[in-house]
């Protein structure tokens, strides 16, 4: 049996054992109580093989009953439709008085929506108000999340049963008045289904391995260990986890949230990647100037480009940080560059031999300066991640909470099984409630002509 199949079989066996143990513990002490409605087991975890690592698609809701079965096709048609249209400058509502010309249209949208049959409708949203067609209302699924940008979580609140699948809006760029058009698939929970979550993980598989194998082919070696390559540290499992960690929309919300809260953020990132692919996070920039899929800052990018010329990064740092292939190559090379601050021989040896410890230290160094991380380790020892260690920034401490949990739910079958056992009853009940509401709405519509 091939090695990866043996590993997958062992992982699957461990997962089944954990699920059975959890079921047994939950059943203890329930003798004599009224039997609760039986909840079927969750669907099997979908594995994605990534160069010797097995990633599992995270759990999440099933497809909603009033979302088209051919959702990918609906997204494609919606994207094509809004790509052929233009915002009406005369209808645009400027957010500030000084916005003139096409800048007036920042924050205005053309929204492509589909019903459960796949019927397509373009809805105009100017000044935050659905202006046409009559009867359609577009609102924000999450408070204060639709004030601008290309990824507003739009939902169609009227009429019921419609899903936003694409938008066209205005963003800063090189076009007329310093503005260019952006066409994007905005995330909402109505798009969160197993197919699109898997598509996102498979896109990361393709994008990360393309960069990984190129650097191996170009013989990009470590600058600190003669017998090592940069890819020995920038392994696909680590880089994929870093990417998803960077794209969680709330550090404190993640750290303080439940498993369901955390899954919602991870699923959001995977679906966004699955539907937008190479365009994902193309327009994302933080207040500190971090950009793109890896949220890379300009100065570190330029340093990696100079330090590792064989990586062959673009001279244009904006493009290099926005383009997924260049950004991921930068992230891989950065894992080797961090070893400049790890000077103690015993610590280096430990990190070389212990992949889990190495991933955590390099993840902390990706968020904070690696020198800060090493000072925290030197001052606090094994407690370097704890609140008692004031040398480590709180932001980095929260970052590691995200990183560890995401890594576990993707690559550790035991942790994934525990998370799924915890959230599955709620996910199942929510799916059943959505189906019941859908059937009630269908019954009301069927009865309406008879009433008239």
Structure description:
With 452 residues, the chain is of the alpha+beta class. It folds into two domains: 117 residues, no CATH class; 220 residues, Lysozyme (Orthogonal Bundle), CATH 1.10.530. 48% of the residues lie in helices and 11% in strands. The chain contains 14 helices and nine strands. Strands 5-4-3-8-9 form a five-stranded antiparallel beta sheet, covered by helices on one side. Helix 3 crosses helix 9 and helix 10 crosses helix 11. The chain starts with a helix and ends with a helix.
Overall mean pLDDT stands at 91
- Low-confidence segments, given as residue ranges, are 1-6
Distance between the termini: 67 Å
- Rg is 24 Å
